[in-house]
Design a protein that fits this description.
260 residues; alpha/beta
Length: 260
């Protein structure tokens, strides 16, 4: 692990229940420790998505100040979501991150500073993920069991590291492209057009126009009988570390991802 990680990093569970990786230890030792780490078991699903129409709303790149408004909206609708957090955003938004956890939302790892993981040196990939695990753990008391690779890009090395760290890789099936089209009506239309049971929607809580789209999305899909669940709930708590969900970006039924 790069020395920049500083003091000991705990990965894979609540404080005292994980594996410590010490700064200055060898890369081989770190990889061995990751392999030995046990991912914290997912909480039992609160909604049976084999019975209910479920959909998972996910939000990337936060937390930011505007995330508080989104949490108010979700709470008012009794909806849960999954937040894929950037490690660099945590220090200045600890109260928001704590609120995400305490209000029943799932928190995932989205790297420290949105670096592209594919093609990067192994040490860089580990650094991006471990620093974020540590930042989230220190605030919430629990390390994530899911991660979203930046840009949806993954490869054999990322798969291996994610597996060793106990992180399932979460992609999406409905892309709002809200980072580009910062238009509330357009974002709402794309979600409603793409919504199907079992789908995963990607949005960004750093975009106010996307946050403003959420009330209309929740109202419309609630009328259609949808339950808004976390990614782990969507899969019944049966996510396998290192595997990608859905297997192929853009489709929940496309089969195994092509080899990389």
């Amino acid at each position: 692990m790069p020395a920049a990680l500083g003091a000991a990093v705990l990965v894979g569970g609540a404080v005292g229940a994980g594996v410590f990786l010490l700064a200055g230890s060898s890369s081989h030792e770190n990889r061995s420790a990751h392999r030995a780490a046990k991912a914290r078991p997912a909480a039992p699903a609160k909604v049976d998505c084999h019975v209910r129409k479920c959909i998972a709303l996910t939000f990337d790149d936060g937390p930011v100040t505007g995330t508080a408004k989104l949490l108010d909206i979700l709470k008012a609708h009794g909806a849960h979501a999954t937040f894929f957090v950037l490690g660099q955003q945590v220090a200045n938004n600890q109260d928001i991150l704590k609120r995400e956890a305490t209000e029943g939302h799932q928190i995932g790892n989205h790297t420290f500073d949105h670096a592209k993981l594919t093609g990067a040196p192994r040490a860089k990939v580990e650094d991006e993920l471990i620093r974020t695990q540590e930042a989230i753990l220190q605030v919430t008391g629990t390390a994530p069991t899911v991660m979203r690779p930046t840009y949806g890009y993954s490869d054999k090395q990322v798969n291996e590291i994610a597996k060793q760290m106990g992180l399932a890789q979460i992609l999406w099936t409905v892309d709002t492209v809200d980072w580009k089209d910062r238009n509330t009506a357009v974002v709402t239309k794309r979600v409603l057009a793409g919504a199907k049971p079992g789908h995963i929607v990607i949005m960004h809580d750093i975009r106010p126009t996307s946050v403003d789209a959420v009330p209309g999305i929740l109202d419309a899909l609630t009328k259609q009988g949808y339950a808004f669940v976390t990614v782990s709930e969507l899969y019944g708590g049966n996510l396998v570390p290192g595997d990608r969900y859905p297997p192929f970006l853009g489709s929940p039924t496309a089969g195994p991802a092509p080899p990389m």
